[in-house]
Amino acid sequence: MAHIIVTGNEKGGSGKSTTAMHIFVALARAGMRVGALDLDLRQRTFFRYLENREAFARRTGQQLALPRRIALAASDLRDRIAAQEEEEARFSEAIAELERECDFIMIDCPGSDSFYSQMAHAAADTLITPINDSLVDFDLLARVDPESGRVLGPSIYSEMVWKARQLRARAGLRPADWVVLRNRVSTLHARNKHKVGEAMAELSRRIGFRIVPGFSERVIFREMFLNGLTLLDLKEQGFTFSLSHVAARQEVRDLVRALNLPGLEK
Amino acid sequence: MAHIIVTGNEKGGSGKSTTAMHIFVALARAGMRVGALDLDLRQRTFFRYLENREAFARRTGQQLALPRRIALAASDLRDRIAAQEEEEARFSEAIAELERECDFIMIDCPGSDSFYSQMAHAAADTLITPINDSLVDFDLLARVDPESGRVLGPSIYSEMVWKARQLRARAGLRPADWVVLRNRVSTLHARNKHKVGEAMAELSRRIGFRIVPGFSERVIFREMFLNGLTLLDLKEQGFTFSLSHVAARQEVRDLVRALNLPGLEK
Ligand SMILES: Nc1ncnc2c1ncn2[C@@H]1O[C@H](COP(=O)(O)OP(=O)(O)OP(=O)(O)O)[C@@H](O)[C@H]1O
Ligand SMILES: Nc1ncnc2c1ncn2[C@@H]1O[C@H](COP(=O)(O)OP(=O)(O)OP(=O)(O)O)[C@@H](O)[C@H]1O
Ligand SMILES: [Mg+2]
Ligand SMILES: [Mg+2]
Questions:
Q1: Residue A240 has pLDDT above 90, yes or no
Q2: Does chain A have fewer CB atoms within 10 Å around its N or its C terminus?
Q3: CA A41 to CA A44: how far, in whole Å?
Q4: What percent of chain A has pLDDT over 70?
Q5: Which of A14, A134, A200 is the pocket-test mutation for ligand 2 (most atoms within 8 Å of CB)?
């Protein structure tokens, strides 16, 4: 039985693919066998990052950890229900295939509520939701009273997660661990961060997710995309570490530790 | 005939809704009659921003410009082709309705290639594509050679725009003005910005868009979402302007001027 980790957030650009890539590299470097699915079928940011990594390894003759990847195609049946049945079969087969040989399966979701994404949300043992430090992003988790800053009620993405939880419970699986992390956090703007932070804390109590340490806005999280490298790989690349790099590495380690994943050293 | 402005980018979180809101307010303050469609049917960030604005106006007794909005629903027909025909009818009716009384129609697209989004891309007189200062975002416009930094070929979003252009040409409409702007630009990280900038310049020549001044990463672009206000509204709100605010306002003005919209003073 592989432990399934899903990065999900219907809000675009919250950092799902970036988080998926960095968690993959952290797990691989810890000696775990990792499988991967990229459910963002058109953009494929996570798989593109991995293809760049594979190409870099070939070009430089280096060894770089890669996950066992399975590419899923959308069904092109015209009938919506028949298309979903076909996709459900493809999804289950891919999971079964990866579970044979992997300790972990990393699944990156699109910024939309596709059927594949809904299935991944139900299959997740650990669901990771990155969110920008922004009331605009927060609006997809919950509506907030403009005057009191209090949470008024869940909104579209929380409802999606809720539906997935019900499906999961009905399938007799243990509840997922839903973790939310703030991403692209600026080192400034205390007032705005405070507002988002307060609303997050209140919502976490109400709808049952826990908040884990996230990532600051750092160009190192994206500047090596073309080579498929992350800051975790830089030891072998012989780089001199800047202060920002050391801080970034700590952010990734703090996240991985906070995930409490089975089989990982503390 | 209304001039149709569309914010589009399949990449999530590039700044479509933020840009749509600020352009709307700039046009309204210039005395233009503006209509609006929000094609992100689930997230509805743009319409949520406008609903917050309407609520703020009611709460405070203030007058605040609002666009004429039409809400479009997804078709729930099971057959994909029949569903698209239904959506095509709804889209055309909404445009025809708004054209009767508006100088401009502001259409915000989702971060996915929905059928409504495809239609908007063909209907656009001005197509605005915001993009993060990131090779991860750029990957949806074009593939880049990791060693030379040269553009290898168009990718998924460029192809979507291309298809829309062909549809538009076949419908006998004048070519759209495709503008790309960089958003959430940090004041640091010259090397990464240079790489993205070079690739953008090369691609703009190859696939025919022009690059216009964009926005820096500034919390003022998002911190008033709950009240539906933008920095352009702050004059009447009696705020004291910070240096960042003055700079932000100049960024919005520079963008609007660069759009060369009909009927607007230079
Ligand atoms: N911590 C960070 N620091 C700097 N840049 C970041 C960080 N996290 C994400 N980014 C950048 O922000 C943008 C959005 O990130 P990413 O693509 O990972 O989000 P996503 O949720 O997968 O988006 P989508 O909804 O399109 O799938 C990308 O340009 C990425 O490089
Ligand atoms: N220039 C900016 N400065 C600061 N924050 C910004 C800026 N532009 C956008 N943001 C923030 O970045 C996030 C993404 O912006 P936005 O929602 O406008 O993107 P989008 O392209 O409409 O996303 P989606 O694909 O989900 O529709 C939001 O949290 C928004 O508040
Ligand atoms: Mg992604
Ligand atoms: Mg949007």
A1: no
A2: C
A3: 6
A4: 99
A5: A134
Tell me: the pLDDT tens digits for B42-62? 999 999 999 999 999 999 999
Q: Give the pLDDT band of residue B190 (cuts 50, 70, 90).
A: low
Q: Who lines ligand 2 at CB under 6 A?
A: A 11-13, 111, 132, 134, 136-137; B 12-18, 40, 43, 45, 110-111, 183-184, 215, 217-218, 221-222
Q: What's the CA gap between B126 and B128, in Å, rounded?
A: 6
Reading the block at residue A43, the tokens are 């953009």
In single-letter form, the type of residue at position A84 comes to Q
SS3 state at A62: coil
- Asked if residue A32 lies in contact with residue A4, where contact means CB atoms within 8 angstroms, the answer is no
Residue A109 pLDDT greater than 90, yes or no: yes
Residue nearest to atom 13 of ligand 2 (CA): B13
| Contact of A37 with A70, CB cutoff 8 Å | yes
Spatial distance between the Cα atoms of A136 and B50, rounded to a whole number of angstroms: 12
- Measured distance CA(B214)–CA(B183) in Å, rounded: 6
**How many residues make up chain A in this entry?**
266
Please state the separation of Cα B126 from the chain's center in Å: 9
A2 vs A94: CA distance, rounded Å: 12
Which of A81, A135, A188 is closest, CB to CB, to B225? A135
Q: Give the residue from A115, A55, A57 showing the smallest Cα distance to A88.
A: A115
Percent of chain B surpassing pLDDT 90: 89
Largest Cα span, chain B: 59
pLDDT score recorded for residue A191: 73
A184 lines ligand 1 (CB under 6 A): yes
Model confidence pLDDT, tens digit, residues B151-187: 999 999 999 999 999 999 999 999 999 999 999 998 7
Residue A220's contacts (CB-CB under 8 Å, 6 or more residues apart) are A231, A244, A245, A248
**What six digits make up the tokens of A98?**
């990866």
Task: Report the distance separating Cα A57 and Cα A63, nearest Å.
Answer: 6
Q: Are B70 and B38 in contact (CB under 8 A)?
A: no
